[in-house]
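Hi,

I'm pasting everything inline rather than attaching a file, because the server keeps stripping attachments. The sequence lines come first, and each chain or strand is labelled.
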Amino acid sequence: MSGWGDAIRHEWDLDPAFLTVNHGSYGATPRSVLAAQREWQGRMEAQPVRFFGREAPAALRAAAARLAPILGAEGDDLVFVENATVGCNAVLRSLDFSPGDEILVLSHGYGAVVKAARYVASRAGARVVEARVPFPRPDDDAVVAAVAGAITRRTRLAVLDHVTSASALVLPLRRLADVCRAGGVPVLADGAHGPGNLDLDVPATGADWYVGNCHKWLCAPKGCGFLWAAPARQAGLHPVTISHGYGQGFVAEFDWTGTRDMSAYLAVTAALDFHERLGGPALRARNRALAAEGAALLAGRLGTETGSGNGATNAMGLVRLPLAGDPSRALAFRERLLDAGTDAPVNAIDGDIWLRVSAQAYNTRADYERLADLVERAL
Ligand SMILES: Cc1ncc(COP(=O)(O)O)c(C=O)c1O
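And the predicted assembly:
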């Protein structure tokens, strides 16, 4: 498929007056996918009893089977969850921790998931240990060494981000999982940014559980994530909400967590159609290259540096702003950019302030030129 960028922008409802360069935070759903979601909602409301009793269970499994190949997975090893936060909570809250146990997280771990780990640890008298990710431009060996150095004989779980949120780094998940496995530590991979961004083979990551979002890079409707569990890890894994499926196995427990609108899950097939129509792996490669180009362009204009570069690239890039400061300063600058008409997230990392750019099919190089203008003005 040729014709990304301006040629494809009409597929989304994005505000043409606003500069969208932050697909990473919440995604943006194309019109065709929203139409498919509304169609599922129409079927649900036309005959609710028939829909929930007969249609939805099979449709849900069909959607999982359709999603599985892009993850290199089997459909029955994955279940839908609303989002990555819910999926990580399900794993964390299914495990038993004892006083003195340790849950390993990363210094660049996603805040909400780290909080969930702290919550679970505090209830058991366990503690959370943070492995410090070297930054900027960490090389894979240094990341592996940081995780290896944080594992102790009390470590019961490692929560590892596949693509970090604020710093947009692709971490060497397979190597990290190998190090954890060698230490007898199971791995929960937080792949919120994995699907539709990286070329994924989930079982080959070596993770025991892998959580991902489809509403980010696959452009599914909001509230469409998944939890994959290795077959040996499915027993004893429960959703956060216990319901009718309790005791009937992994798929049954997660497929029914009470009456809810499942249309975002069911519309994942339309999102996959859309992603494939736009090029699938070719689109992912194009987005990764464009994000790197956008970050380099900004670093050049601002006279600073990019944050990633030694590891694999992804559809988000990071550039340092010529500002020092704490999270409140970063937030103030983020708000200033929002007022100026763009959504690029700005975060403080190790005392410096960094801006993240995203690249999705609708973005072009000109977007990052325009972003550089807005950033220079805001500075
Ligand atoms: C690494 C990581 N984990 C988890 C999440 C949470 O995603 P959600 O809000 O869809 O649960 C994000 C969101 O950006 C993320 O970047």
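The two ends are 38 Å apart (CA to CA).

If the labels don't parse on your end, tell me and I'll reformat.
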